[in-house]
Design a protein that fits this description.
With 307 residues, the chain is mostly helical. It has helices at residues 2-22, 24-49, 54-83, 167-194, 205-238, 242-247, 260-268, 282-287; strands spanning 115-116, 125-127, 132-134, 139-141, 146-148, 153-155, 160-162, 297-298.
Amino acid sequence: MHRSGAAMAWNVFKFCTALRGLGSIMILLVLGVVGVTYYAVVLTSYGPALYEGGLTSVTAAVVLILFHGLLVMLLWSYFSVVLTDPGSVPPNWRPVMDEERGEGDPLTGSEFGVSPADASKQRVRYCRKCSQMKPPRCHHCSVCGRCILKMDHHCVWVVNCVGALNYKYFLLFLFYTFLETSLVTLSLLPHFIAFFTEGEIPGTPGTLATTFLAFVLNLAFALSVMGFLIMHISMVAANTTTIEAYEKKTTLKWRYDLGRKKNFEQVFGTDRRYWFIPAYTEEDLRRMPVLQGLEFPSKPDLDAQEF
């Protein structure tokens, strides 16, 4: 029985090591899908259609403008997730209770009707692997080999953990990926249908194969990302993470659920101009400590919950 447990631990370690080894391969894979799609939509299908005149040119121009606009936002969000550290526990971090903090603070003041979590009501969490105390909502990532602030999950597609400092960027990446893949799927649908109709189809075998492949890939990504996006929208509305959703599956009331509007602002900030771009205003970063992943307002009557 002991040998079986040891073997399982060894296998898990090997799995985590394999995920680390993927590294830039996943980034190259994402860029490869983008390249195939760009070739099929811009160079093969709608780029040449710009010169045909009439309604065809207008349609092509609209598709290309939307395609490039969404592609810029997708790549901006993607590399923001990849390059942004999700958040680590500061050296020698200790839980501190500051009763006076929150005067005029949008996330801890009377406007929210909540107070900072009372450390005296909680059991201090400790990570044996990192040999340090863990802030609320912090979890250890076996792939990264460190504790991540407000960890959601480790994503192989972005070769990074998704945590407090890059969760918004991850959600925007999902959002723009869904919009882009849906646009490509609808744009290439007439070409896909043409494969199964009678008559001669313009183009070389290579361009036809690339168009077919781009349609199938984007359709698959659109459907899968849609489900993933819906799941994360529901978690943002409840102010929870993937890990917390699993840990509190039998908990009816959640200490960090402050209402949909305030929960949304804890991820996207309060400035509406920045909701759809992977960035925060300096004002939000200054006034909202929750965006740093160390302090989280909660309901005082539920402060005893351990997460």
